[in-house]
## 1
Amino acid sequence: MTAFKPHVLTEVTISSLLFRNNTRIFQDQYSKINLLLQSLPINAGVIDGDTPHQQRDDIANECQIILTNPDTLHAALLPNWKKKQSYHRLLSRVTTIVVDEGHVYDGAFGAHVSLVLARLKRVCRVASSPSNTGNTIAAAITFIVCSATLLHPEACFRQLCPIGEEEKVCVLTSQDDGSPCNAKHFFVWNPPILDVNGNSTESVFVPKASNKIKDDKTIECEADNDAPTVNIQIGSRKRKRKGSSTVGQNSHSQHSNIFIRRRHAADETAYILAKAIAGGIRTIAFCKTRGLVEWVYEKTLSILQSNPDTADLTSKVESYRGGYTAEVRRSIEERLFQRKLFAVVGTNALELGVDVGGVDLTLHTGYPGSISSLLQQAGRAGRGKDVSATAQSCAIMIAFSSPAEQYIWKNPKILLTKGSDKAPALPLNGTVIKGHLLCAGQEFPLSGDHPVSCLLNECGKKPDNDCPSDCNLLSPTPDEYEENVAYLLKKGLLSSKEVTVAPDANSSNSNEVKRISVFTTHPVVKNPWKRVSLRSMEPVSYAIVDLSHNLQGGKTDKIHHPSVVLDTIPYSRVFYHSFPGAVIMHRGRKYRISSMENPPPFVGGSSYDSCGCNDLLAFAKPTTVQYSTQALSCNQITVVKLIKHAESNCNDKKKQGKEEKKKLVTSTVAGYGIVTVKRTVHGYKKLSHVNRTEISRTTISLPPMEFDTHALWIDADATYLRDLVLDYDSGVHALSHAMVAVAPLFVACSIADIDCDHSRYDTTRIMIYDQRAGGSGITAQLYPFILDAMKAAIDLLEECTSCHTSKFDGGCPACLQSVPCDNFHQDLSKSAGVKVGKHLIKRLEDSNLKTKNKFGGSNPNVQSPHKPKSIMIGRASWTNNKTDRTRFTMNDEI
């Protein structure tokens, strides 16, 4: 997708920015670009968070192609373009901006990135002005967006990139695709049933009444699906008892008649991966979590090492995920791109644009969560310049034992169901816009309904399709721009002054002189970019330190060498993964967390001093225990402030003597306001490595992770419906999922921007809340459409095109399972959800929702929460003395 503009620069060096979300795979593109530029006088460089500051000036001055990311643009290049001459010269030369993997820029994250690109365009316009460079005309910028999985490419392009409505956009379709990629086959693989001893029955079906194992013909007839079901033998996986012999015995004689569970998808992925490695098939295995990556990787190594013929192949397998140090990542990437590895087990960090030639197979441990993600992951196979015309690749999804994924296995066609086909929209609301106005006001004065070129004293002719006015560039409409600027002025965050605008050489009246108001960020606002979190990243994280490392020497006072850091985990996830006593996996080795430092007290905003992201430490020791650990947690969502609400009215007339008195009985049926989301890890359980059964539970005391955000809720009338609707709690849970799934039909957002209350017991309400700490304004926009959204949710439950004819009541990836679930899509009932929803619609229609609580005119300003944005909050009573490194410890050392 390209917005075409003429390149008329003749007296300056032209530069391009390659802009992508994931910096972990820059090295792949960087090496390929350098290979293409060997015979040309053009240099390429990378400026991202891993680039040393002392090298950035040389890269900016000497390179014509710069690889960077939205975070570096937002926090480094744009805020410092006036302070550093190297950045100023770089931005003055930019003529092309390439945005790779455009499909990832959706929802609130996409809204932030679109405003970063808008700020980039206005700064490039100012930096390239003839008044600053001495050239005859300013640079015109061409935007290029790359993606293979966008349903509405032109609409997404126009929303993301700052181009005018009149500008031409060219969309290159699959017919224009010149990348080497041939036929791809998708399979859904179901792990076999295990007996009570953990032995495989070599069948994916549980026998009904008979004790005998049914033959293949009987099994194939049982499949309730038109798609073929094939039992593929991938090797014997039966554990032998000591002293037992299998010579001359029937393979079924070792099976117990008691079938208790299906093989775990992670174990099955490891078995398939080991077989692929042994067969010389280059493979990438995708897992949804870091824990699953380490699980599959460790199991794969164990299987390879158990066979002398494959033991030497263990060095050809690696794991790749977030949290690894930059040195480890670079080492793995280098071996991967140089084809020194047969297989890699990774998260979706390998999903975005990695061109690994020669990969023939991708494995997917469970459904990735969206069709876009599945296609991106599967697209890693069958690529590269050496792909022959007849070469084909495969993608295999290994199903978990959950009802949702078993339904996918029985109905594999829905694996590629796209769900709602609606053009996306970015939530450019006041919450997002205000922060970027402060950033833009510091970079160059805001000029309102005039382009920034009016402040540059340019005497020559301006380029065609000059930079739009700020009110069109930094806001969806001029009215919203004025409203947000007025708000910031009132708060004292912007300063205003009048300036004289130079005559426009393109205007018919070249002598016309105007005075306009411009706005700059007030000096009291230091580093406004810190107020805007593009990804809602937290300022605090934990570094996992290996106490057994020689350079650490068992000391717990600080990090004594960078190589002792095993992993880096954000504060919001550390208590789920690396709590005291947790057994973690790191590149095939087991460690046990022995202690961890207390998190700092909540001090507000970004004022965590200059401690850096790795200031907090957790300490681990190698272990050989034969169990894994799983956190036990509870989530609590509390309404702390009611902003809007709707009531149902019931009139009860009673006579008292000669007078008639009307008694008004009211009850709240829906509301919108501020809520506190509190997540607490209160213990963990130990799970056996042999059969995954629970061994014991341990209670621990950890601080809650807490943040304020905005939410809407609907009372579920539990008192009346609980005894009338079978599976009432599962129905409320399903209706909550459906409300999240249909929300993008009414407001500009993605499913990742909002979440629902996933409570399964004693439910009393349907609650939808903004995922971002502090609120993103999405639920505020959705609240006026709450009745329409409820009706659409019921339609989705009743008429999902993929599963409405099925007997399965738990939904499918095209409806309920498209929403991430804390409970792994358990306890969902579409039929109960329909009954609950229809009753709630009547209550909403009988309420004063439309008359009293509908927002008028523009979207409301989201009120500031009680606590600052993007902060995961610990106990405020804890000490802030950084020298006091108190920590949680375990008493039962192993």
Note: The chain has a mean pLDDT of 77.
## 2
Amino acid sequence: MTDQAATLVSFDEAVARYDPVIGLETHIELGTVTKMFCGCPTQFGAEPNTQVCPVCLGLPGSLPVASRAAIEYTIRIGLALNCSIAEHCRFARKNYFYPDMPKDYQISQYDEPLCTDGWLDITVQDPQPGPGGAAQPPRQVRVEIERVHLEEDTGKSLHVGGSTGRIHGAEYSLVDYNRAGIPLVEIVTKPVAGTGGLAPVVARAYVTELRDLVRALGVSDVRMEEGSLRCDVNTSLAPKGSGQWGTRTETKNVNSLRSVERAVRYEIERQAAVLDAGGRVVQETRHLQEDTGITTAGRSKEEAQDYRYFPEPDLVPIAPPRDWVEQIRAALPELPSARRSRLVREWGLSDLDMAALRNAGALDLVAETVAAGASAADARKWWLGELSRRANESDRDLADLAITPAQVAAVAGLVTAGTLNDKLARQVIDGVLAGEGTPEDVVAARGLAVVSDDTALAAAVDEAIAGNPEVAEKIRGGKVAAAGALLGAVMKATRGQADATRARELILERLGQS
């Protein structure tokens, strides 16, 4: 059955009748200064084909030399993922004939990967409410890692003309070999079963956690938008309770966290429709269309024998000394899961509070704001409140807003000191986001400081009393709650800049209720 013949099944119906199994193959470009097997630089964004040499172009007579830094970075990743580190392994040639590899083969690892049999624990939040509509508690899922192996990246093809940006329908193609030969780690999970309707959420959470872990290790910038982290998403369905695994598809080169989730969700709906109609899911690669969120067929999936692997004759085997591996282990930084546990304790958060910070992409921003002098409560308040609203309105990530954690800490400090109230602080944030300078600059330029001088406040209070004699009389009669109306008049007269606490005190003093 073709894609066109299948009508999608709703996601809830699909997971009610089928058990999804997912698997993820994540490719991460390592942040080494030079390429995997030569001395060419790895800087992103250079002019096409300016960072190449005879080795990474595969010219006759050139010989590769393995990068020690890339091997160390891979071991670092493997240890952080609880993997066993091989005492002896080797590189292999993976033969294929695509123009993005000028040698017509890729140096990779096949039957002897550097790291094997690990795991990564992730925490997922079920988006469906629990009994009574309350949020369900976060659930922990262990994703088992099959292997972490080291290889070289391919070049980048650019297909010019046509409507899709792909080779079909293009007028011609260009190839940039700057990326060819950059150290690339591939992290392959074992099949992840038993997650049911949470499968798309689990896929996204795993890639998110892996990205954060690799960034914490300092071995890659893991910028999905630049291609330094790419994910191939495998999805299959089997009849509910059958205990079997269905035929999988592989959605290639998914380049955002949101798209990882969308790819799994769409494939579950599409494959369920095919199976419901009596069709057969074809093992193939697929491509996610970012504009529509659907996947389209690529090519039939090659098996290992199609690549004709054989040991790389130009490279000696790798035998990492055990003392070196232990030195690398001892130097590992605090990993994201341990850091989150520490911050939960230090900041007095619940698991749901921490989940909210992570979901908003605010954890690092809040931590940096606290480090700049704000309290954890104030940092969370501004990033999850006012600034999240601004990010949502402009359809941007929090980290892309034109305000730094240090500036947010400065705003919080001005509020704590009484220089600003929350209303004025929001105006200061407006000014910072508009490029008007630091919070202090905005306060000075816009004249936004709280009015706390008794002389100025007394004049505004007297004016409010004179303008509202009936309210003033109620307060004189003991109805102190009516002071709120006069306070509102004072705030209006001072454009919201009055010190509300001191203004209320003056109102009550003037009317004999102090």
Note: Residues 138 and 425 are 34 Å apart (CA to CA).
